[in-house]
Every structure is written in structure tokens, then in C-alpha cells.
């Protein structure tokens, strides 16, 4: 069994245990028919404030070759992530968010060696500026603080952390759900992490209160490139996307990363959703670390 699969099983068991020990958060019955977005797992969140445990696993195939200052370098292989996110709602307007953690398995087939280690940890708070159940609309702001305690072997732990402010909305219309987010990543040490903006978009359709086909779009773009002396960061002509901010010296060469995803969520019972989505870049695969990605998750609301 791959180590990432073992960890996913372990964190799922931990999540189930936490959910049985915890007591209920706020009552958001008006918005119960909506779902959480699937992709851009660190930053993309819906506007609701709910209490849940979210277990997420990504299997990301990397491009056969990547663009660097020394030419097209062979890579291939996988970059996998297993993580647990926790959200605790104080009420329908305010919640405490644990948004990034987990374990990364970086397993290229060529050029670089197999590494694994812990991701950086990020947490913060979310507040709903507009909470309008009658019109099925929420507009929220979120602020995340990311620490830099992660493993350098998997391109974490660089710099002194960052702040990620964002704004998001949720709008229901008949059986459709529309969710969008705009935000940024502001490092405390500009030389070690790139300054980025991002926007993410989600559309889903509710079928018989059980099945939610969905499509999503994510866009990251570099505002200011870093100047990391790490070997990979010094030659890569792109940034790492949502999971990795390597501090590329040449991130502005290919500053945009756009991906699309299609998938579905299934409501197993009232408070458990499972999801799967296939994601692929719309920009050139060689200008990033994603050839394609399978996203899997389970969310327990309580």
C-alpha cells in the first residue's frame, strides 16, 4: 500500500472520531442543499460558515517535461496530497478555519528524486458580510495565515509564512449553485515565496437532493516573482500552483496557471458528502506541475 493511501485511511478514521466527539455548530438549514467546492483545496471555499471535518486526497500526474532555463527537462511521475481540513462555525456569520495541512508525496520519474514530507499549516477566520437566506445569497471574507514549518524536501517551509485574504460569494438559483472567489497570497519574505492572485469558480446542479454534478475553473497568476536560491526554484520558469509556492526566480515567464475540472458530489446521508473531480490545465502543461489531477474527498457536517 502506498504511504499516501495509508495516511488517507488514518486521517479518515481520525476525522470520524472527531466528528463523533464534537457537538453541533450553527444551524444553517436554509443553505443545506448547497455543496462545498472540490478543487483549489487550500484556498477555494464556499461562503457558508458551517462546522465540518473535510478529508481530501489528490493524485496529481506531473508533466512528462517541464520548462526551465536550461530547456525542457524530463519529470513525469506523481505529486500526491492527503490532508484534513476542519471548520468550526461560531454562528452563521463567523467561523474558525484550518485550511492547509497534510502530507505530500513527491514522486517524479526523472531528474528529481522521490521525496515526502509535511505540508505547511494554514488557519484563520471567515466572516459573512451579507447573510441573506431569503435570496439564497452569502458574501464572505476570509483571512488565512500560513506558517512555514513544513518539509523543505517537498517545497514547503520556505520563507516566513504568508497571508491569504479572499472574498467569496454563494448564490442559489432554482437547483443551481454559483460560487466564486477572488484572493491573493502575500508572503512575509518576498525573496522566498512568490506573491500571487487567484480566482476560482464553481457551478453545480442539485439532482433529487443527492447528486450534484459540478464544473470548476481555477486561475492563479504571479504578481511578483521571488528569488529563492533553491536549485529547482532557480531554474523553473513557472510557479507551483495551489499546493506549492516554491519561490521561483522566473515565475513571471509563465505567470498564469488556469485549470478546469468536472466531477460530482453525492450526499450519502444528510450530513456526509463524498466527491470526485478530474482536473486538467488549460494553460501549457509544461509551464506547471500539473498534467492532470484526480480530487477525492469526504465531508462530515455536524
Number of domains as seen in the coordinates? 1
CATH superfamily: monomeric porin ompg
Q: Order of strands side by side in the largest beta sheet?
A: 1-4-5-8-9-10-11-12-13-14-15-16
What is the strand tally? 16
| Sequence stretches where pLDDT stays below 50 over 5 or more residues | 4-28
Care to describe what's here?
It contains two helices and 16 strands. It is mostly beta strands and 302 residues long. It has a single domain, classed as Porin (Beta Barrel), CATH 2.40.160.40. Strands 1-4-5-8-9-10-11-12-13-14-15-16 form a twelve-stranded antiparallel β-barrel. A two-stranded antiparallel ribbon has the order 2-3. A hairpin with a 2-residue loop joins strand 10 and strand 11 (176-187). It is globular and about 55 Å long.
Helices and strands in order, then pairings?
Layout: H1 3-21, E1 52-61, E2 65-68, E3 71-74, E4 78-89, E5 94-100, E6 103-107, E7 115-118, E8 122-132, E9 137-146, E10 162-173, E11 176-187, E12 195-205, E13 211-224, H2 231-235, E14 256-269, E15 272-281, E16 292-301
Amino acid at each position: 500500500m502506498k504511504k499516501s493511501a495509508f495516511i488517507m485511511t488514518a486521517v479518515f478514521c481520525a476525522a470520524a472520531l472527531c466528528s463523533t466527539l464534537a457537538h453541533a455548530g450553527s444551524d444553517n438549514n436554509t443553505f443545506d442543499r448547497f455543496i462545498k467546492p472540490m478543487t483549489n483545496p487550500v484556498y477555494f471555499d464556499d461562503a457558508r460558515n458551517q462546522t465540518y471535518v473535510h478529508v481530501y486526497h489528490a493524485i496529481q500526474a506531473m508533466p512528462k517535461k517541464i520548462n526551465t532555463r536550461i530547456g525542457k527537462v524530463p519529470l513525469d511521475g506523481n505529486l500526491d496530497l492527503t490532508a484534513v481540513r476542519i471548520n468550526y462555525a461560531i454562528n452563521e456569520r463567523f467561523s474558525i478555519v484550518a485550511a492547509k495541512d497534510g502530507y505530500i508525496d513527491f514522486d517524479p520519474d526523472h531528474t528529481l528524486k522521490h521525496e515526502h514530507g509535511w505540508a505547511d499549516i494554514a488557519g484563520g477566520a471567515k466572516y459573512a458580510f451579507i447573510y441573506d437566506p431569503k435570496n439564497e445569497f452569502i458574501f464572505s471574507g476570509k483571512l488565512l495565515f500560513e506558517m512555514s514549518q513544513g518539509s523543505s524536501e517537498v517545497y514547503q517551509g520556505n520563507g516566513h509564512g504568508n497571508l491569504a485574504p479572499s472574498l467569496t460569494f454563494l448564490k442559489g438559483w432554482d437547483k443551481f449553485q454559483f460560487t466564486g472567489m477572488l484572493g491573493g497570497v502575500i508572503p512575509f519574505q518576498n525573496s522566498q515565496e512568490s506573491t500571487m492572485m487567484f480566482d476560482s469558480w464553481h457551478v453545480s446542479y442539485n439532482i433529487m437532493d443527492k447528486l450534484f454534478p459540478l464544473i470548476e475553473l481555477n486561475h492563479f497568476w504571479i504578481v511578483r516573482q521571488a528569488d529563492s536560491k533553491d536549485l529547482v526554484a532557480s531554474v523553473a520558469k513557472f510557479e507551483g500552483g495551489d499546493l506549492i509556492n516554491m519561490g521561483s526566480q522566473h515565475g513571471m515567464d509563465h505567470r498564469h496557471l488556469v485549470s478546469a475540472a468536472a466531477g460530482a458530489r453525492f450526499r450519502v446521508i444528510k450530513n456526509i458528502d463524498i466527491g470526485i473531480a478530474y482536473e486538467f490545465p488549460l494553460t501549457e502543461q509544461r509551464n506547471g506541475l500539473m498534467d492532470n489531477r484526480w480530487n477525492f474527498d469526504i465531508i462530515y457536517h455536524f
